[in-house]
């Protein structure tokens, strides 16, 4: 009993961690087979666009990328997408690739985690941070390699992070800020703790247990918060698209992100929709139209 009293707090924390790891899917998305059907529908609609899969390894870790470009013109810049969708790199098929590639962009998309894993594969958060951190480094090394091998001299490159993709992608692209002129946050927020406390994450009915679990998780994951990186983007162009009915990214957390990036040339769009997803085609269509307009495509 003396031992239990002495280490009571530690025991409670361990019990919460075990509970989350074994009984909760941390990122329990609502996405289903409709996503793959959307990809299949889109995949064959691109004319004069070549899509290649590239596997990149660094320091014993591997991530897969998809690269799209027009074979009619020589690209001189790139559009990097880290989507918030279950399939990771396959979110490239949701874009109007002809519109982007015909404006001289390489379009690059990546998986969230090393070895081609995505959020839906990771139900054990004890490994979540390590795989995400590895992939952040992989993304930075890959983009550096891509710039060098393709002789990219333009500084008018674009990063688009959708949902949790913005949390994973913000650090590597911020470290490469001199290459980017535009950053787009699609249905994103300022910090992971608020996201974890939202309705769609950590679906635990007990309020105390939910808040305690969220707090512990945020200690692991807070370094991915987009709100930490606003100083890197001073005088850049920034786009924020959010939904007023979004149950995954609370409105106050989105507004906090907008406010932090006041040092940018900022465009803010509030739609009426819920959280973006490949199987929510009406929201996706509106979102992408805002993105293309912002890029003058």
Features:
Rossmann fold, 8-stranded mixed beta sheet, 39% helix, 297 residues, 20% strand, single chain, 8 strands, alpha/beta
Describe the structure.
- By secondary structure, this protein is an alpha/beta fold.
- It has one domain: Alpha/Beta hydrolase fold, catalytic domain (Rossmann fold, 3-Layer(aba) Sandwich), CATH 3.40.50.
- 39% of the residues lie in helices and 20% in strands.
- The chain is built from ten helices and eight strands.
- The protein has an eight-stranded mixed sheet with strand order 1-2-4-3-5-6-7-8, sandwiched between helices.
- α2 packs across α8.
- It is globular, with a radius of gyration of 19 Å.
Number of domains: 1
Order of helices and strands: HHHEEEHEHEHEHHEHEH
Number of strands: 8
| Structural classification | alpha/beta
Write the layout of secondary structure elements.
Elements: H1 2-6, H2 8-23, H3 33-43, E1 49-58, E2 61-70, E3 77-82, H4 97-101, E4 105-110, H5 128-149, E5 157-162, H6 164-175, E6 180-186, H7 192-196, H8 207-221, E7 237-243, H9 251-260, E8 265-271, H10 281-294
Parallel strand pairs: 3-4, 3-5, 5-6, 6-7, 7-8
Antiparallel strand pairs: 1-2, 2-4
């Amino acid at each position: 009993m003396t031992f239990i009293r002495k280490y009571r707090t530690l025991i409670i924390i361990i019990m919460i961690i075990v509970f989350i790891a074994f009984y909760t899917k941390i990122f329990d998305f609502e996405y289903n087979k409709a996503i793959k059907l959307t990809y299949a529908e889109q995949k064959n609609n691109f004319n004069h666009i070549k899509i290649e899969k590239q596997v990149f390894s660094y320091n014993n870790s591997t991530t897969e990328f998809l690269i799209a470009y027009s074979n009619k013109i020589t690209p001189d810049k790139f559009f990097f997408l880290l989507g918030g969708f279950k399939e990771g790199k396959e979110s490239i098929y949701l874009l109007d690739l002809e519109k982007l590639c015909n404006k001289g962009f390489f379009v690059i998309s990546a998986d969230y985690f090393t070895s081609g894993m995505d959020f839906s594969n990771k139900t054990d958060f004890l490994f979540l941070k390590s795989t995400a951190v590895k992939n952040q480094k992989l993304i930075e090394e890959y983009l550096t390699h891509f710039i060098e091998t393709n002789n990219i001299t333009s500084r008018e490159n674009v990063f688009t992070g959708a949902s949790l993709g913005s949390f994973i992608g913000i650090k590597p692209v911020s470290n490469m800020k001199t290459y980017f002129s535009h950053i787009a946050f699609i249905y994103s927020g300022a910090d992971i703790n608020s996201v974890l406390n939202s309705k769609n994450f950590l679906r635990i009915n007990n309020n105390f247990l939910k808040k305690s679990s969220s707090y512990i998780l945020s200690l692991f994951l807070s370094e991915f918060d987009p709100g930490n990186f606003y100083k890197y983007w001073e005088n850049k162009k920034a786009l924020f698209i959010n939904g007023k009915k979004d149950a995954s990214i609370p409105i106050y957390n989105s507004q906090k992100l907008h406010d932090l990036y006041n040092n940018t040339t900022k465009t803010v769009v509030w739609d009426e929709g819920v959280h973006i997803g490949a199987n929510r085609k009406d929201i996706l269509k509106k979102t992408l139209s805002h993105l293309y307009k912002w890029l003058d495509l």
